[in-house]
Write a structure and sequence with these properties.
The protein has 262 residues and is mainly α. The protein folds into two domains: 57 residues; 187 residues, no CATH class. Helix content is 77%, strand content 0%. It has eleven helices and no strands. The protein is globular and about 70 Å long. The relative contact order is 0.12. This is ATP synthase F0 subunit A. It is a multi-pass membrane protein. Its main location: membrane. Belongs to the UPF0014 family. Keywords: Membrane, Transmembrane, Transmembrane helix.
Length: 262
């Protein structure tokens, strides 16, 4: 399905409706709407240009490098949205994002979709983009709970260590809360599908010309893939972060994880 320039123009004219409503009621959101639209267009143009070049080259090395760049940006956004220090936690979050996205993404492409070359740009990049975008939203909230818990419940952590518990046992409560927080959005999305959540992938694929059952299968598989990727990512991030948050004696380091990077 191809869209001409004039069709783009007709599509953007729909933006006049919400803008007029905001103007009619003298809402202060009108300026923010215009700024958000301009920013969105700018970012999408940059992304579109990069995707066009990557797809035109279609070399596995460049494709993999671009996928790594997407995951690195996703890790940075995850840390910033969780209000955590990038300098201290970029590596753990990047490790979690990399593991979750690549393991689940390659599994889906290779075993589920049946792609012979999962590093082909038209297969790898969309899957990496979908999984990374999902991890930003879900894991930022989950990791915020985990690291804020280390701050506010540090006395409980030291108390449990002093009473003979291993550090893994002392952190078990926070681990469970973090994993549950990462799982809840996925469970909610699957439980409210068609009732409270629109299956966007299903409708998008049908709009692009895919068959009903093919679009349905992709929607279901990607939902499960997002769920699995978020679980893997959170667990890997918490495990790797121990080296950055705990010293050799399993004590919390003085550089608190809740301090936001300047």
């Amino acid at each position: 399905m191809e869209i001409t320039f004039m069709q783009y123009v007709w599509g953007f004219l729909l933006l006049l409706i919400p803008c007029y409503v905001l103007y009619l009621y003298h809402s202060t959101l009108l300026t923010k709407t215009v700024r958000a639209t301009v920013g969105m267009m700018g970012l999408l143009l940059v992304l579109g240009f990069l995707l066009y070049e990557v797809m035109a080259l279609n070399q596995w090395g460049i494709t993999l490098l671009f996928a790594l760049l997407m995951m690195a940006i996703g890790a940075i956004l995850t840390v910033r949205r969780a209000k955590l220090p990038i300098r201290q936690l970029f590596v753990p979050v990047m490790a979690g994002t990399l593991t979750g996205v690549l393991v689940v993404g390659l599994y889906v492409l290779w075993l589920v979709v049946g792609v012979r070359n999962p590093l082909e740009v038209r297969f790898l990049i969309p899957v990496v983009g979908l999984l990374t975008g999902h991890l930003i939203q879900v894991n930022s909230q989950a990791l915020h709970i985990y690291f804020m818990g280390l701050r506010h419940h540090s006395q409980l952590y030291h108390y449990l260590l002093g009473n003979g518990m291993k550090h893994s046992q002392a952190l078990g409560y926070l681990f469970r809360r973090t994993i549950e927080r990462a799982a809840l959005p996925n469970i909610s999305t699957m439980g409210r599908m068609l009732i409270g959540v629109s299956p966007i992938i299903l409708w998008s694929m049908m709009l692009a010309g895919a068959g009903v059952f093919t679009a349905l299968a992709v929607q279901l598989v990607l939902l499960v893939a997002m769920f699995s990727a978020s679980m893997i990512s959170v667990i890997v991030t918490m495990v790797v972060s121990r080296r950055y948050l705990l010293d050799d004696y399993h004590q919390l380091k003085g550089d608190k994880p809740h301090q936001q990077a300047e």
